[in-house]
Amino acid sequence: MVSFARSPVTAVLGPTNTGKTHLAVERMCGHSSGMMGFPLRLLAREVYDRVVAIKGPEQVALVTGEEKIVPPGARYFLCTAESMPMAGGREAGPKEDFAFVALDEAQLGADPERGHIFTDRLLRARGREETMILGSASISRVVKALVPDVEIIGRPRFSTLSYAGAKKLSRLPRRSAIVAFSAEEVYAVAEMLRRFRGGAAVVMGALSPRTRNAQVQMFLNGDVDYLVATDAIGMGLNLDVAHVAFASLRKFDGRRSRRLTVSEMAQIAGRAGRHHKDGTFGSLGHEDGDAAFTPEEIEAIEAHRFPPLEQLFWRDGTPRTDRLEHLLHDLEQKPQHPELRAAPEAVDLAVLRRLADDPLVIERTRGKRQVERLWAASGLPDFQKLGAEHHARLVSRIWRFLSEGSGHIPRDWFAQQIARLDSVQGDIATLSGRIAAARTWSYIAHRADWLAHPGEMAERTRALEEKLSDALHAALTQRFVDRRTSVLLRDIGQNASNLPVTVEPDGSVCVDGEMIGRLDGFRFSVDPATRHQDRKMLLAAAERRLGKVLRVKADELVAATDADFALLDEAGQAPGIAWGETPVAALLAGPTLLTPEIRLDRALLALGQDVQKQIVTRLAAWFDAQKQKHLLPLVKMSESAADPAVPAVVRAVFAQLADAGGVMARTDLDPALGHLEKEQRHLLRKAGIDIGVLDIYHPGLLKPGAARWRSALLAARIAKPCLPLPGPGLTLIPAGERPAQMGARIAGFRGFGEQMLRIDMAERMARTAHETIAKNEPFTALSPQIVSLGLTEESFLQLMRAAGFRPVETPPPAPVEEGAEAPAPSGANWAFKGRQKARGDRPQAQRGRGPKPGGGGKSRSKDATRPASSGATPAPANNAFAGLADLLGRNG
Predict the structure, then answer these.
(1) Other residues' Cβ atoms within 10 Å of the Cβ of residue 13
(2) Residues 753 and 795: beta-carbon distance below 8 Å
(3) Residue 423 pLDDT more than 90?
(4) How far apart are the C-alpha atoms of 391 and 378, rounded to whole Å?
(5) Distances (CA, A) of 599 to 604, 612, 845
(6) Is residue 694 a contact partner of residue 803, using CB atoms and an 8 Å limit?
(7) Three-class SS state of 565
(8) pTM attached to this predicted model
(9) What is the pLDDT of residues 44-86, one digit of tens each?
(10) What percent of the chain has a predicted confidence (pLDDT) above 70?
(11) Which residues have CB under 8 Å from 696's CB, separation 6+?
C-alpha cells in the first residue's frame, strides 16, 4: 500500500446539477497551476475549452490518450483520469507538481473496468495547496475512511428532478434526451425519432470530440429537438435537456447484462434540468415495460438518497518495474484496507500476462527500461473492443518495434496503417470502426518516445480523425435527421395547418426552401423521400393551404373542352376520368351499365360543395358525349329495351344484350331467341344486331373506342380493375394469361385453342364454310381464307366444331399413274349438324345419356374422322365432341 499524501483535501459531494465541476474550475483558475482528471475525453475537451476562454490557449493543456495539446508554458492541465501525469506511474509527464488537483466523478472507483484508476487518483493525486474530490454523496463514507483528513462538503441540487412517467416515443416533450445502452439501440431510437419528430442528434462515448460537438451543436441550435445518447451523458456533459427518457434500464457492463443501480439511474436522470431549470425523467414505452422504474427507485432518485458505496476497486498504481516478475507480482497484490477490493483483471494486465509468456519478451525484458516500455505498450487501450487475445497480438507487434533497433516504430509501417483508414466511404458502422482504429494510432503517435517523428504522425492522425469525424457526422445527420420535418416542427410546433406553403411554377410545393411534394393538377403528392409517418402531416398542411390554387384550377376544368378529358382504363387500374394527365374522377357502379356514378377524386374534396357540383356536371356532360360517340348502338339498345312500342319478347333480348355491353354468346341468349318469331328477329337485325352462330353482337361495338368504354363500364359495375385489351385493328391474338383472355372476350374475341379470333371474323369463317360446303368443296386449315387469318389447324378444327360442323369421310382419290400429278381433293369434308346446345338447355332425357360408370368409348382420334350420323342426337359423353358444351361455356 502507498502512503496517503498530507495536504488540504476537500470532497465536494452531491447529486448532479450542483455545480461541482464549475466550482472546481473556478478554484483551479485561482491557483498558479492546476490539474483536473475526468472520466471522458469528451468532458475533458469541454472543460479545456472553458479554461482556454479564461486563461488563454498558451497556458492550458489537454492531455488524453489520443490527443495532447501541451504548450511549453502550460500551467493548467485538463486530462482523462488515465492520462493524469502522476509521479511513479505509467503516465509520468513533464509537469507532475500542481498547486491544485481535482478528480471528477470519483464514485467511478466502484466501476469494475476502470475503478482502480479512479481509486489510485483519489489516493495519490494531490495538489500542493488544494485538492478536490468531486463525486456522488454515495462515496462519502469510503472517502472519509481512505482520506481521514478530508473535509466533506455537500451541495444541494440547483433544480428539482421529478418523475414524469412512461411516454411513447411519439409523445416525448421537446428538448428530451433518450438514453440507450448499445449502439444498435441508439440507432434504432434515432431512426424512429426521424420518422416521428424529424430527427435526433446522437452522442456516444466512442464518438470523437469533433463528431460529438457537431451533433450536440445541432441540438443546441434547435435543428433537432431530441438527443439520443449512451450513458456517456451521465458523466457531466452539460446539455440543455428538459427530460431524460430511459429506453432500457439494463446494460452490459463487459461481463454480464444487469439492471442499472439506483445511483447510475440518478447520474443519468440528473442531466435533465440544468442550473435552475427543473427537469423530469421517465421511461420509454409503458409503465410495465423493460424500462419501467420501481416506486422505490423513483423515490430514491427524486430525493437523491442512494445506498452508500462500501468498497472501491484498487490496483497498485506504482508497481515495481525493475523486473517483469516484480511488475506482475505488484499488479496482483491484494489491498489491505477494508474499503478497497482487488480490481478484476483489466485489459492491460491481461495483455501483459500473454506477452509475459512469449520467449522473445522474456529474453528482451532484462532491464528496467525494457520492462517499463513493455508495461507502457500493454497500456495501449483496446479502442476497437477486439478482446484481450486479439488486442495482445497488436501490442506484441508494437512492442517488438519498441524493443529493437532504435526503439521506434518504423515510419513507413506506421504510415501504411494510417493510409489503410484514409477513406470516408461506408456506412455509420464502417466509419465508426475506422475512427476507433484511428484512435489507436493517434494514441501511439502521442507517445513521444515511440516514433522518430511523433509530431508529424500526430498531425496526420489528427487530420485523419477529423476527416473521418466529419464524414461520420454527415452520415449520422443524413440517416437520423430529416431537415424538412424538423424545420416544419421548429417553425410551427405541432400545428401543421399553419405551414407557410408556397407553390413553384413547376408544381413543387415548398416550405422554408424545403420541398415537401408536388401539385399535379388537383393531386398533392408527398415527396417520395418522405417517411410514411410524415405523410399525414404534410398532406393535411398542403390541403389546408392550397385552397386558392385549387379553386383556380377548378374553374379551368369547368371551362375545358371535351378534348381535354380522357378515359382512364389502363390495365390493372380502376376506371376513371382524367383532365389532361390529372385523374379527377372515378367511375363506380350506377343504376345501369350506361349510368355509372362519377365520383370525384379525393383531391377535389377540399373544394367547396358548389364547385364540386359544377365539376361533376361538366364531367357528366363529357361522358354523355362519349356515349353518343362510341356507344351509340348500346344506347339505342337500352332505349329499345324500355320502348313500349317494341314487343315484350324483343325488349327482353335488347335488355339482356344492353346489360352485357352489346356482346353475348349465342348460347346465353338461345332461351330468349327461342320465343321470337321471324318478324321479331328482323327487328333485331334492323337495329344492326348480328345474330351469329356463336355470338350475338353489334359490329359497331367491336371498334377500339367502343371496346375501351365497354370494358371500363363493366369493370366499374363490379368494382374491379380494368382488364388488358387487344391492340386496335387486331383480328387474331394468342390466348395469353387469364386476365388477357377475359379482356379479349369483352373486346369481342372468342377463344379457339391457343388462339382468340374476333367474333365477326369467326362468323365470317362460319359463313365461308357454309358456302364452300354448298359448292361441294373441301374446307381445311390450308384454305386461303384460313391461312390469311393465321389460324392454326387446332384452332380451325375447334372453330368448325363450335360452329356446328362435323367432319365427314370423302371418297378416296383415284389411283394416279406414275409421273402424273395428284388431283386436288374434291368433295365436302364437313357437314353442318347444328350447334350443340348448352347443357342447361338440353332436354332432361338427353342430359341423362352417356356411358355407364366404368364403360369404355372410342378414342378421340377415331371419332374425329368418323362421318356424322344423319340424326340430331348428341354424341355420347365420352365422344370427341362431348366437351363442346364445356368449350362453349368457357368461351361464352
Answers:
(1) 22
(2) yes
(3) yes
(4) 9
(5) 10, 10, 52
(6) yes
(7) strand
(8) 0.58
(9) 998 999 999 999 999 999 999 888 999 999 999 999 999 999 8
(10) 84
(11) 657, 663, 664, 665, 666, 669, 673, 689, 690
